[in-house]
Amino acid sequence: MKPARIPRFFSKSLTWLVLITPLILAHGVQGQDLSVRQPLGSAHGFLTLRDQAGAILAAGDLTLVPSGDRITLRIVFHFRDGSLNDETTIFSQKKVFRLISDRLVQTGRSFPHPCDISIDVASQQAIIRDLSKAEEAPRVEHMNLPPDLANGIIFFLIMNLPSDAPKVGFPYLAPSLKPRMVKLAVTADGKEPFKLSGLRYQALKYDVKVDIGGVAGAVAPVVGKQPPDSYVWVTEGSAPAIVRIDTPLYEDGPVWSIRLASPVW
After folding, report:
1. How far is CA 98 from the centre of its chain?
2. Could you tell me if 91 and 68 are in contact, meaning their C-beta atoms sit under 8 angstroms apart?
3. pTM for this one?
4. Exposure of 149 by Cβ count < 10 A (0-12 exposed, 13-18 middle, 19+ buried)?
């Protein structure tokens, strides 16, 4: 008997992307509401995407545009090989965070499965386009999407966690050509120092583990298909900031590092 096929796994959204990433599911995965401790406003940041050796693969932008209690987040990475990772997320932040919609587009040589995937929570559906097959019409899948879905906002949810928070879980729709609900289990993983222009700072490190669930989840570690953990570093203090995210951006992809960047003259 062949082992169960493991579903495709997400980026990050940011996917993270911001970014970029968090019980067991039957028709859906239910997590917990997270109060808005750090409301988001208008912002524009510059990012780099690096491999594990530190080489820059892509340059990017992060923009946050508020409209009432809604925020439009867009994270775009332009790769040196011409590839593109473009994610636009709309969410609300009235008392608790609520995802409204998310669209992820991945094209180019850096992505073995180029795709255009849209999630609409209100209509409870995902629209999937395989960009390697331009002649095919988009596929619409009706799904049980929980109200606390973390796609596109997972890293901001982590930024809002109390520093003494226990292990928490967030439902996530792994965006692939065959999307599936999983759980992102977030655990505090201690503190790490970092430097900026010679000054020393402290960051809280979080481990984000993918729980596939069901039979597929049970056999994933055995057959070597368990997605790698992601890691998020958040500064301490009254105004926390995400300073680094290490995460894969697509199923079976390598772990890449999203860092803040500064303009150079």
Report:
1. 15
2. no
3. 0.82
4. buried
